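Quick one: structure tokens for this chain, please?
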Amino acid sequence: MKTVLITGCSSGFGFEAAKYFLERNWNVIATMRNPQEGILPRHENLRLLALDVTDEESIRRAIADAGPIDALVNNAGIGLLNALEGVTLERIREVFETNTIGTIAMTQAVIPQFRERKSGVIVNVTSTVTLKPLPLLAVYTASKTAVNAFTESVALELEPFGIRMRIVLPGLAPSTKFAENAFVKMLPVPEAYQPTFEVIRSGLSGAGMPVTHARDVAEAIWLAVNEPTSPMKIPAGADAVLLAKEVGII
């Protein structure tokens, strides 16, 4: 029975991916900053581990406690919606520490065991905002675009060792907590940008438009892990697929 370690499983994409892999008879190590029984349904093949991807010691402990794994899914991330002018450098660093450096650190931590066994898959969940620029998302987009470039480059290093890397690109997912978390972490939007902010905020509901569901992302992650011929970039969700076709990546 194979084992996957998934970061950011307390809700949204990570939560759904954990359930998806359990349904298909994988051992799942579901990580989150503050694990609590009951967040995920009890299952004999499920383990919960504490993990803060911005903390080196937390990463070391989680990898040691997890033992050998067959796949890593870097899903943990935070959102940020604001004009660049309204964001502090402290908040920008927080976004990059989690979304970008956290992904890099987790990848680095599992490479030795994968290289030794000459097998393993690393899937990095980013976003379709990396395919088409949007206002008020510059910092978030930059943090995820960096992960895309990182993934494609490191994939070349790891290919000779039988290790695969893939990118999953979700679209707008109103049913997850992304928008809620992005608003929680917002500083006040500067008055000059309020009209733009109102347009973006209304669009986050996804009303009347194709959107992404957490299950779409779980299915894309499953494909990335289990299909060696899957493309490097896999859109997840109806809106993500439409955008990917528009920009020509599928």
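The chain has a mean pLDDT of 95.
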